[in-house]
Write a structure and sequence with these properties.
Helix content is 58%, strand content 4%. By secondary structure, the chain is mainly alpha-helical. The protein has one domain. The protein has a two-stranded antiparallel ribbon. The longest helix is centred in the C-terminal third of the chain and has 25 residues. The relative contact order is 0.15.
Length: 154
């Protein structure tokens, strides 16, 4: 295979650089989960007690080796516009709310670290919340029905 520079190719054909099509929120989250999965059981570090920090101070926070570091190191996510591994940039890019970010990235939920594969699983739950919510609804409905049956029979 012969390699030629872009300048040489421009003389032979029209060369255009087009940015990749923007991904949906779900696609961005799924790409993040895949990046985490590629690390397997490697640990990722979490943010320390976000719930005690004013939300206004979250923006510049970063933790070396966090799930956000993994996202920022992914070429696709960077090409899509992820600016850094700072919490504020990730919240905006992945369209995460405070509750989602806390549930996924805070040490009070998982300890100081978790495996990358566990983080990938949590990110996937954010990408496709319906099966998770449907399961909760089914369990709740079953418990309510059981309670009604017990009251009826008892």
């Amino acid at each position: 295979m012969e390699h030629k520079s872009v300048e040489v190719l421009r003389g032979l054909a029209e060369v255009r650089f087009e940015p990749p099509a923007p991904l949906s929120r779900k696609e961005r989250l799924e790409a993040w989960a895949k990046a985490l999965d590629r690390q397997g059981a490697a640990p990722v570090r979490l943010f320390h007690q976000l719930e005690f920090m004013p939300r206004a101070e979250w923006g510049p926070l970063r933790v070396e080796g966090s799930p956000l570091t993994t996202a920022f190191n992914d070429p696709l996510l960077r090409a899509q516009g992820l600016q850094s591994d700072r919490l504020g940039d990730a919240l905006a890019f992945f369209d995460l709310n405070e509750r989602e970010a806390h549930r996924l990235l805070c040490s009070c939920m998982h300890g100081a670290a978790m495996t990358s594969s566990r983080a990938a699983s949590l990110v996937r739950q954010l990408a496709s919340p319906l099966p998770h919510l449907a399961m909760r609804a089914a369990v709740g409905a079953g418990a309510f029905s059981l309670l009604g049956l017990l009251l009826y029979m008892g």
